[in-house]
Amino acid sequence: MSDADSRIQLIPLGGFGEIGKNMLAVKYEDTIIVIDCGLMFPEEELLGIDVVIPDISYLVENKEKVKAILLTHGHEDHVGALPYVLKEINVPVYGSRLTVGIVEGKLKEHNINNADLRVVRPREKVSTGPIETEFFRVSHSIPDCMGVAINTPLGIVLHTGDIKLDQTPVDGQVVDFRKLAEYGEKGVLAMLGDSTNADRTGFTMSEKVVGNTFEELFGKCSGRIIVTTFASNVHRIQQVVTNAEKYGRKVAVVGRSMVNNVKIAKELGYINISEDVLIEMEDIKKYPPNKVVIITTGSQGEPMSALTRMATADHRWVVLQPGDTVIISATPIPGNEKLVARTVDLLFRQGAEVIYEKGIGVHVSGHSAQEELKILINLIRPKYFIPVHGEYRHLMKHAKLAESLGIPPSKIFVAENGQVIEIGRKKATFNGKVAAGKVLVDGLGVGDVGNIVLRDRKQLSQDGIMIVVVTINKDNNEVVAGPDIVTRGFVYVRESEQLIEDAKEKAKEALDICYKKNLTEWAVIKAQVRDKLGKHLYEKTGRRPMILPIIMEV
Amino acid sequence: MSDADSRIQLIPLGGFGEIGKNMLAVKYEDTIIVIDCGLMFPEEELLGIDVVIPDISYLVENKEKVKAILLTHGHEDHVGALPYVLKEINVPVYGSRLTVGIVEGKLKEHNINNADLRVVRPREKVSTGPIETEFFRVSHSIPDCMGVAINTPLGIVLHTGDIKLDQTPVDGQVVDFRKLAEYGEKGVLAMLGDSTNADRTGFTMSEKVVGNTFEELFGKCSGRIIVTTFASNVHRIQQVVTNAEKYGRKVAVVGRSMVNNVKIAKELGYINISEDVLIEMEDIKKYPPNKVVIITTGSQGEPMSALTRMATADHRWVVLQPGDTVIISATPIPGNEKLVARTVDLLFRQGAEVIYEKGIGVHVSGHSAQEELKILINLIRPKYFIPVHGEYRHLMKHAKLAESLGIPPSKIFVAENGQVIEIGRKKATFNGKVAAGKVLVDGLGVGDVGNIVLRDRKQLSQDGIMIVVVTINKDNNEVVAGPDIVTRGFVYVRESEQLIEDAKEKAKEALDICYKKNLTEWAVIKAQVRDKLGKHLYEKTGRRPMILPIIMEV
């Protein structure tokens, strides 16, 4: 293929029209590189599902072309699917030192030992066939985040990663504005921009604001202070530690993922805690309340988390007492609002004071709001603009923002997972679709739970099940035992004996009809039973349990 | 009992430590009056439950003492349980004209014809034995709301109802500050105050603000305008209508509850729409897009609502088109966030512009924020203060607010449902508990779904069910048919034949062991099967379906 005919394909495999499981394949000629490899936590209606990962059949089909996976940062929605994906496609994985550190831990848990993980630094370049990628520093809600600029013979594809324009980040690592400006000046062919907060006006507050709030709150508290936040928010944890030191308090770290993350961050130098400040959980009680800060998991109200166990008076080492102050330094992820609210209520019931209100500076977002997004677009002024990382409304709001800055609508592509964007020398267009979607992980099974199973789970969850078992003589189709009825999740049987007896009668009637009419086809008999019984139960109870007739032959 | 020994008992039956199903019994000597009679929509984990109503066993046990039900306003969480409660206790029900109008419609749907509904106006007094109640005007997010002041020989118990201090309400009916001041001056024994927004700083904006936003938005739109809000928010609807008229647009009302509510509100004079402005749904297409406003249900993303059907291109009369603007004039009720977000995404996908962002003035709350709550407490300065209508954290925040205004902590009672507060001439104390809690309504069943059924539904929803049926000879316990295996919601059977075959083998093994050991007790055999199979399945799949062995005898 001559260079003039070359095309860049941007193939969204996750994170386009959804928040989570971010994954984008960039193809140029025979080279595919993949940006991020995230998972998603299931929505409520995916009953029983543990996690959701992207459908990577496109990558598997083009396995020999896939040369690298580039990670922008260490959040689950950017690295969480790696253990599943590397089993199918084992290519070099590039990421910052912290990102690689987090991934190493994750792969170990999944018993994957053959991964080729490579640490890169900001402004470092990685060559993959005709593509050269440069990483650049961005700030977000986990340290050591980077965006990527993919240099192809056709031009530069620039992906912001998750980004906020924090002017006073805790580690001093400001977004590499000069590098972005340099690319802007050079000319960027296509820009992919984080849309998570594209529907929020103004600026996202700096992480430092939370530090200031902590300082003020810590100064006022005379009892123990318990802070919960995302375990990956190392800078938030740093700010807790810094203020604890300032007020002469020791720090105990509680909750498995918090302990792990603090350990990794400490080892890699992303957090600064002097040894004499850290104490063990079991030693908390050795210190007076005004000398202790506890950092814990549970900011999302997760039922098994340390904070939830404290809230239910079920934590071995931390028994809440009046005078304790709990600071919820996080925002509920959509869908977790109720769990968090319940945890707050339980904490109050234990006698603790709880600081959780919105807008009081105990939490800030890690994503750019509209004014920041405008700055980014104006700094880069790409030829084509593609909003990424957002539900459809976020992508649309981001697209409109770009439009308001003068990017022509025809050069803005709001894509959803699977929709291929093809960029040539002269123009860019949508060009076909590849397989993309949700692969459901339930226990050890990856992709073996589909719509039928979920539909059944849904029905079972609403009205339960009624099983009708009957044994018939295979020679003459006569009923020799049953029908027996067993129900679960339908009614409390002891209080509804008559209902069950009546149901048995109805089933018997249906079977009699079949016998008299000489209907011997099992499917027909079952349909009769289901139909008769279903109508009867709905009339009596207003419910529609799953009715499952089982016929045994002797 | 001499007057000196008399006590007032405040008996919270709902809405204390929760948002919803508000109900408070006030007892003085042999007279009980009940304030509000609400329902609650079930939380996610109440699988299959339709609505939740208060446990009224206390009222039923004291039936002859219950003299009246007083309604503060017509929202579901204040009147929704009436159809269930009146079946048990048919006493006079007092409420404003609109409230009674709404209740009438509700009772008709439930085929209740013998209710004694009595319309009262603000400042009207109702005598019930030794108690005299005066109603007073308050503003909220439905018209014709009132609070109640219960005059007992011991003093006044004042209940704010749901309240906001709207200085410019759409109907001009400002909170009756003078009446509140009069009571304050006279001396209020106990005040019960709406805590819903007690964790929000500042003031709640006036309903008029939304009207101004509408005016601005309507002025900018050149296509159709579709506004969704709560069907009961008559003033919001009025503001849509007013602005439609202003810009020469016709108004179509869509969605069953919206049509009903507009009808009641029009009949009773709570809404002002000239006949030539209203058009029928089927006539929408006769008008150019810039001459139409559609008011619709669906502000909570309810799956069957009109707006959701428009969003899925499934509405008979309203087919969305580019140029349409949808205004979501509501906030998601906690738990509905995802449904609303999904609807917004779908609307964007239909090509509509959607205005849904927070803080841009398309919605305001109907409850007082902290500054308003402070005004109320300072106006009334009760002897005892009892926060109501809120989850525990809201009650606590409201209690702290009262404390910050100088009400002594010993005179503030944070109660939960069932906790009786007893107020005497000299002091007030908690005094025992009465039955209170959730009664679950599922289909036609009231209270017949309990923890066991819900636990089963939960398990079924997570990993499904595996049924193992076996027929044995009752004389010698030999297996004559089966074991057969049927699963639902566990795995997709066609793709997991081997798994099912193996499971059958495992069940057979368990049965063999029982047979050989001569274990004939069914419970023992079933436990064996469950145990063997459960372990096997967990090992193979990481899942724990409900295992249900069924033994048939021939």
TrEMBL record, chains A, B:
Its cofactor is Zn(2+); Ca(2+). It comes from the Bacteria. Zn(2+) 1 binds at residues 73, 75, 77, 140, 162, 389. Binds 2 Zn(2+) ions per subunit. It is not clear if Zn(2+) or Mg(2+) is physiologically important. Binds 1 Ca(2+) cation per subunit. Seen in 1 crystal structure, it is not clear if it is physiologically important. The active site is at 194 (proton donor), 367 (proton acceptor). One of its GO terms (cellular component) is cytoplasm. Substrate binds at residues 231-233, 363-367. Ca(2+) binds at residues 48, 50, 442. It is found in: Cytoplasm. An RNase that has 5'-3' exonuclease and possibly endonuclease activity. Involved in maturation of rRNA and in some organisms also mRNA maturation and/or decay. Belongs to the metallo-beta-lactamase superfamily. RNA-metabolizing metallo-beta-lactamase-like family. Bacterial RNase J subfamily. This is Ribonuclease J. The lineage of its organism: Bacteria, Bacillati, Bacillota, Clostridia, Eubacteriales. The gene is rnj.
